[in-house]
Amino acid sequence: MEKTFLMIKPDGVQRNLIGEIVTRFEKKGFQLSGAKLMNISNEKAEKHYGEHKDKPFFGELVDFITSGPVFAMVWEGENVIATARQMMGKTNPQEAAPGTIRGDYGLTVGKNIIHGSDSPESAEREIQLFFENDEILSFTKDNQKWIY
Ligand code: ABT
Ligand code: MG
């Protein structure tokens, strides 16, 4: 099944949006396969945002993403990479549609609440950058023995 890497950025964590955001993906029907609260090192941040290293905002981007804990997640489900991007909304929250995460909670492009992989190649690269293999769980909820 397709997997993607999603990450609630330091602004989303500080604003207590972890629960709200996780709920949206659960209710949509995706399955959480891995998650952790973590600090990102400068080295990891520079790798993660490597494609932007020549952009004028690169320094600010790395400073921001390393400024406090992030909530890193692996989500799984049909077409999850593209659908999660739709649920997040456009990169600039001022252009993101109401009903999307950035449209509902964000104000500025440099602090846009959530990251999501933009292709199967980035998803694979980012999952490997942030997670060890044994931190990603493969399980089904078919056997619902705790529901009476
Ligand atoms: P990410 O999920 O953070 O990768 O955002 P997204 O893929 O939607 O957008 P891209 B283009 O990858 O932006 C990466 C981060 O750079 C910030 N940014 C982007 C600016 O600060 N100024 C700009 O002009 C542009 C184009 C927004 C993204 N992250 N943050 N935080
Ligand atoms: Mg991006």
UniProtKB/TrEMBL annotation:
Coiled-coil regions, chain positions: none
Domain Nucleoside diphosphate kinase-like span(s) in chain numbering: 1-138
Reaction catalysed by this enzyme: dZDP + ATP = dZTP + ADP; a ribonucleoside 5'-diphosphate + ATP = a ribonucleoside 5'-triphosphate + ADP; a 2'-deoxyribonucleoside 5'-diphosphate + ATP = a 2'-deoxyribonucleoside 5'-triphosphate + ADP
Cofactor: Mg(2+)
Domain of life: Bacteria
GO molecular function terms noted in the UniProt entry: ATP binding; metal ion binding; nucleoside diphosphate kinase activity
InterPro entries reported in the protein's UniProt record: NDK-like_dom, NDK-like_dom_sf, Nucleoside_diP_kinase, Nucleoside_diP_kinase_AS
GO cellular component: cytoplasm
EC assignment: 2.7.4.6
Keyword Transferase attributed: yes
Residues bearing the modification Phosphothreonine: T91
Residue spans crossing the bilayer: none
Localization terms from the record: Cytoplasm
Binding site for ATP: K9, F57, R85, T91, R102, N112
Pfam families per the UniProt record, alphabetical: NDK
Active-site residues, Swiss-Prot/TrEMBL: H115 (pros-phosphohistidine intermediate)
GO biological process: CTP biosynthetic process; GTP biosynthetic process; UTP biosynthetic process
Keywords: ATP-binding, Cytoplasm, Kinase, Magnesium, Metal-binding, Nucleotide metabolism, Nucleotide-binding, Phosphoprotein, Transferase
Residues with PTM Phosphoserine: S122
Classification via NCBIfam families: PRK00668.1 (NF001908)
Family: Belongs to the NDK family.
Function: Major role in the synthesis of nucleoside triphosphates other than ATP. The ATP gamma phosphate is transferred to the NDP beta phosphate via a ping-pong mechanism, using a phosphorylated active-site intermediate.
Self-association state and partner proteins as the record states: Homotetramer.
Protein's UniProt name: Nucleoside diphosphate kinase
